[in-house]
């Protein structure tokens, strides 16, 4: 599941909470590869166990974290879990500057509440980054999005952590950045997720921006849980789930009960039978989805577009193939277009079939 953490807390009017706009953007996303369920938490509910069961965590104006939760979150990110961090007026700058989960030394906040004082326009920087590359027009993405308040980050600090800028502001300051941590990534927005410091939530690009940001954070995990047919998987579970009903929902919709086993070091896991049907397998604990595994057919067995020149030469000996051809039809010996020869051969076979049919009829 995706844990969206509200650092402001408290009940308020509709769309007034720190995470309301994020939740609207993430829920019922038909493009989500595994359609992770969304769980909204207040900051004090983000425990070590909550981090353990999450596939991605989205922090919204969370001041700081306890030492135990911060360490668990760092470990999970290093293992491939995604982390997205929206800052705000409650952000503890000293904590996030010192934490490896932060993008570097931040100062501020700079500016003020929306509609008060000067503002900065949002500028796309890394149009090749997955967050922007997925958009229809990366160059004009978030056009007319305005920012009144933000945290400042020196580019040198970001680069020292191997990070990169995704979005900037017109004065040259970074606004959305990413840095790696082990196998995972942390995507940080140096502004708020609500409309207190900016008008991004009112922008037509807000929903695809939030969705692609979470997808980018999940990328390492998606690669790990995207498996070929016949794969064996071992899914770690929390000790408190041992007495619960753990099940696997098959792509067909049927459910299979799973029995938890204790492995080395006292950890618990479940291991279903090999996954032989393409589609999404969902692991359920007392009916609630905790993880999903996508199983794909082996495309290299049937899709010649994925074969390189050496593989094609073994399949069809005697013909020369050029690297970079996207299909068999694009090039044969010497790079010749094979479309017409194949067409003529098909027509000749069709004519031969008609002649043989006529002779058989006369006989």
Model description:
Mean pLDDT is about 80; it is low at about 325-335. The protein has helices spanning about 20-25, 50-55, 65-80, 95-100, 130-135, 155-160, 205-225, 310-315, 340-360, and strands at about 1-5, 40, 55-60, 80-85, 105-110, 120-125, 145, 150-155, 165-170, 175-180, 185-190, 225-230, 235, 245-250, 255-260, 260, 270, 280-285, 290-295. About 25% of the residues lie in helices and about 25% in strands. With about 375 residues, the chain is of the alpha/beta class. Strands 2-1-3-4-11-10-9-6-7 form a nine-stranded mixed β-sheet, with helices on both faces. Strands 12-19-18-14-15 form a five-stranded mixed β-sheet. Strands 13-17-16 form a three-stranded antiparallel β-sheet, with no helix packed on it. The radius of gyration is 26 Å and the shape is globular. It has nine helices and 19 strands.
């Amino acid at each position: 599941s995706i844990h969206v953490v509200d650092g402001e807390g408290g009940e308020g009017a509709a769309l007034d909470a720190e995470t309301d706009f994020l939740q609207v953007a993430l829920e019922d996303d038909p493009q989500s590869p595994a359609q992770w369920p969304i769980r909204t938490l207040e900051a004090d509910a983000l425990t070590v166990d909550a981090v353990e069961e999450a596939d991605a965590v989205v922090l919204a104006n969370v001041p700081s974290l306890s030492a135990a939760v911060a360490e668990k979150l760092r470990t999970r990110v290093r293992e491939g879990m995604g982390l997205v961090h929206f800052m705000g007026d409650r952000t503890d700058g000293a904590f996030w500057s010192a934490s490896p989960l932060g993008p570097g030394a931040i100062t501020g906040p700079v500016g003020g509440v929306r509609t008060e004082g000067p503002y900065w326009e949002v500028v796309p920087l890394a149009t090749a980054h997955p967050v922007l590359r997925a958009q229809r027009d990366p160059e004009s993405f978030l056009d007319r999005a305005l920012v009144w308040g933000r945290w400042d980050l020196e580019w040198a600090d970001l680069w020292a952590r191997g990070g990169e800028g995704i979005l900037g502001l017109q004065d040259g300051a970074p606004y959305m950045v990413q840095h790696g941590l082990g196998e995972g990534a942390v995507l940080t927005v140096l502004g708020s997720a609500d409309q207190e410091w900016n008008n991004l939530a009112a922008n037509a690009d807000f929903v695809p921006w939030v969705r692609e940001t979470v997808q980018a954070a999940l990328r390492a995990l998606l690669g790990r849980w995207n498996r070929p047919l016949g794969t064996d998987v071992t899914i770690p579970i929390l000790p408190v789930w041992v007495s619960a009903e753990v099940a696997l929902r098959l792509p067909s919709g049927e459910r299979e009960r799973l029995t938890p086993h204790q492995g080395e070091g006292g950890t618990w896991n479940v291991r279903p039978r090999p996954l032989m049907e393409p589609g999404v397998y969902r692991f359920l604990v007392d009916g609630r989805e905790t993880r999903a595994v996508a199983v794909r057919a082996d495309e290299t067995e049937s899709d010649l577009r994925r074969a390189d020149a050496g593989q094609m030469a073994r399949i069809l000996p005697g013909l020369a193939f050029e690297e970079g051809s996207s299909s068999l039809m694009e090039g044969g010996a010497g790079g010749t277009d094979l479309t017409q020869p194949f067409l003529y051969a098909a027509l000749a076979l069709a004519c031969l079939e008609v002649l043989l049919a006529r002779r058989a009829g006369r006989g």
